[in-house]
Here is the input.
Amino acid sequence: MLVLPFVNRSGQSNLGWIGDSFPYTLDQRFTSAGFLTISPADRQYALEHLGLPGDFRPSRATTLRIAQTLDADFVILGSYNVINPGSPDSHIEVQAQVLEVNQLSMSEPLNDSSELSRLFDVENAIAWKVAKRMDPHFAVAEQTFLAAAGGVRLSSFENFIRGTAALTQEERLKRLQAAVTETPNYSAALLALGKEQYAASQYEAAAVTLAKVPPTDRMAQEANFYRGLARFNIAKYAEAATAFAFVAGSLPLPEVVNNEGVANSRQGKDAAALFVEVIAADPNDADYHFNLAVALLRRNDIDGATREVQTALTLHSDDPEATELLTRLQATHGSTANLKSIMSAGGFDPTTRIRRTWSEASFRQAEFQLDQMRAIQMATLPPAQQAVQYTQLGSDYLEKGLLPEAEQEFHTALTADPSNAAAHAGIAQVRERSGLVDDARSEAQSSLQLAPNVAAFLVLARLELQANQLPESASNVVNALRLEPNNPDALAIKSTLVAHGQNLP
Here is the structure.
């Protein structure tokens, strides 16, 4: 899916940032819904490839050319108008359409509107309507999308969007710093600011900023990649290796594992095994073979180092350092007797090579493929086991605050096994967090009809507490504690009820 910036029809150029914000928000929601989105960087590549400026607003014919360049199946186009801009009652009206590239067909207009102050709601509502248009069986509730904004202030969001699009580094740093100053836990702005600080060679500041992205956040992988580079550039190799290892632990992309190996090698550690792993994933990269050659050389493995540097030169013959390394290896005639003196003569000191570019497209593609492989593997399990696995995935997403992703997994679990009580309890928790009280209560009750469980009892306990139905809340807490006497959430609600004069056993 390719989302293009929405067209500003307000006549107010200072509101142009809103059009740039739609691809960002819609990409987030579509990714959470299981669609493979095309990144803004790739969109920019397509425009440059076609000789078009970055702020170009394409016609339908040009849109098709962009889509074909990026191998997109669907393109989301839209426009917006702001009524009474600058006034307290300013209003935004949005229209979006889905272009199916292979069918050369355009959907009917999808509309939404609200106060400008509720821009997040409008963007999330449009995303939900597009997802529903593309997949009529899409089961995630609209309110779940609306609850996914994450409490970011609109002014911070504006500074973030303007900051990422600014033409000068000074303006980008200023805008992004303003976004995180106003909303300190704004992960997207923290990532963007950290990357900009890194680009400005502010390596210590970049590492500090990027460390503030929570490890459970979906942006933590990219944040730690650049954090590793920042630490590497100031020779803090152990911290760099830790950051790269964090990324590789969930998504072992070749460039990430390579950098972990390089950071380890700079500490004098043997990184050959990591470089072997990298080459297995990407055997056609000359630098990876060169790195393995250097690692094997440190083991005094002349034959292995010679083999790898020859492969590197086969892939990239115009590499003076690799050529020099091969010449010196051949001068040893396979003997380690004079290896050290031959290698170090003239100050020659081959070092492993790090990768400094994060490929967002590769990350998204790899993550998407892992999800597809997981789905294929789960399809071989009995339905009840499938439901257990998907429910666990949903619970993991819920713990991270990723409501659309969590609900998607819980619905998949119920498709496999409608009698899974935990999946119903999971949806109840999503509904509770998104403010759908009646739906949350209904799902919790459905869960308890299937099997007693703590999660459902606690949903009901919290809902009744909020409604000031203290005896009913206490009853559900007691039931939860019978199942798990030391459950911290149940004990916390119990303490609140006791403080309100309720007597609980």
Summary: The first strand starts at residue 2 and ends at 3. The CA atoms of residues 5 and 22 lie 6 Å apart. The first helix runs from residue 16 to 32. Residues 2-149 form a domain with the Rossmann fold fold (CATH 3.40.50.10610).
